[in-house]
Amino acid sequence: MTLTRSTPICVKCKVIMKCHKNAQFVQDPTVGGFPSTVWSGDVWKCPGCSCKVVTGFGSAIVNGVGSVDVLEFKWDLKSPNENEGE
Ligand SMILES: [Zn+2]
Questions:
Q1: pTM, whole model, 2 decimals?
Q2: What range defines the domain where residue 41 resides?
Protein backbone atom coordinates (compact mmCIF):
# COMPACT_ATOMS: atom_id res chain seq x y z
CA MET A 1 0.00 0.00 0.00
CA THR A 2 1.32 3.40 -0.92
CA LEU A 3 0.57 6.73 0.60
CA THR A 4 -1.65 9.12 -1.26
CA ARG A 5 -2.74 12.62 -0.48
CA SER A 6 -5.62 11.33 1.54
CA THR A 7 -4.19 8.21 3.16
CA PRO A 8 -4.96 8.44 6.87
CA ILE A 9 -2.41 7.29 9.41
CA CYS A 10 -3.41 6.72 13.01
CA VAL A 11 -1.14 8.86 15.15
CA LYS A 12 -1.88 6.81 18.21
CA CYS A 13 -1.19 3.39 16.69
CA LYS A 14 1.29 4.50 14.01
CA VAL A 15 -0.34 2.41 11.31
CA ILE A 16 -2.00 3.14 7.99
CA MET A 17 -5.73 2.93 8.30
CA LYS A 18 -7.62 0.50 6.11
CA CYS A 19 -10.42 1.46 3.75
CA HIS A 20 -13.54 0.35 5.57
CA LYS A 21 -16.33 1.52 3.31
CA ASN A 22 -16.79 3.38 0.05
CA ALA A 23 -19.44 5.93 -0.76
CA GLN A 24 -20.09 7.32 2.69
CA PHE A 25 -22.21 10.39 2.16
CA VAL A 26 -21.56 13.36 4.37
CA GLN A 27 -23.85 16.33 4.59
CA ASP A 28 -22.12 19.64 3.97
CA PRO A 29 -23.24 22.01 6.73
CA THR A 30 -21.67 25.03 5.04
CA VAL A 31 -24.13 24.83 2.18
CA GLY A 32 -27.59 25.67 3.33
CA GLY A 33 -30.88 25.19 1.62
CA PHE A 34 -32.95 22.30 0.48
CA PRO A 35 -32.19 19.82 -0.88
CA SER A 36 -29.01 19.52 1.10
CA THR A 37 -25.57 19.12 -0.38
CA VAL A 38 -23.68 15.94 0.38
CA TRP A 39 -20.22 14.70 -0.42
CA SER A 40 -19.20 11.16 -1.16
CA GLY A 41 -16.13 9.98 0.70
CA ASP A 42 -14.54 6.81 1.99
CA VAL A 43 -14.52 5.56 5.56
CA TRP A 44 -11.10 4.46 6.82
CA LYS A 45 -10.68 2.47 9.96
CA CYS A 46 -7.64 1.98 12.15
CA PRO A 47 -6.87 -1.73 12.58
CA GLY A 48 -5.45 -0.91 15.99
CA CYS A 49 -7.87 1.27 17.92
CA SER A 50 -10.82 1.04 15.49
CA CYS A 51 -11.22 4.79 15.20
CA LYS A 52 -12.69 5.88 11.88
CA VAL A 53 -12.34 8.88 9.62
CA VAL A 54 -14.05 9.92 6.41
CA THR A 55 -11.76 11.29 3.73
CA GLY A 56 -11.10 11.17 0.00
CA PHE A 57 -14.08 13.26 -1.00
CA GLY A 58 -14.95 13.41 -4.64
CA SER A 59 -17.52 15.86 -5.86
CA ALA A 60 -20.47 17.43 -4.16
CA ILE A 61 -23.88 16.01 -4.91
CA VAL A 62 -27.24 17.60 -4.36
CA ASN A 63 -29.10 15.21 -2.17
CA GLY A 64 -32.36 15.20 -4.03
CA VAL A 65 -33.15 11.56 -3.54
CA GLY A 66 -32.60 11.47 0.21
CA SER A 67 -29.72 9.08 0.60
CA VAL A 68 -30.28 6.62 3.36
CA ASP A 69 -26.73 6.73 4.62
CA VAL A 70 -25.79 10.34 5.20
CA LEU A 71 -23.49 11.36 7.99
CA GLU A 72 -24.63 14.64 9.49
CA PHE A 73 -22.30 16.59 11.67
CA LYS A 74 -21.63 20.04 13.02
CA TRP A 75 -18.77 21.69 11.27
CA ASP A 76 -17.36 23.66 14.15
CA LEU A 77 -14.79 25.91 12.58
CA LYS A 78 -13.77 27.26 15.96
CA SER A 79 -12.87 24.12 17.79
CA PRO A 80 -12.26 24.48 21.51
CA ASN A 81 -9.80 21.61 21.35
CA GLU A 82 -7.77 23.02 18.53
CA ASN A 83 -4.43 22.29 20.11
CA GLU A 84 -5.34 19.02 21.66
CA GLY A 85 -2.88 16.25 21.08
CA GLU A 86 0.52 17.08 19.75
ZN1 LIG B 1 -5.39 3.61 15.96
A1: 0.74
A2: 17-71
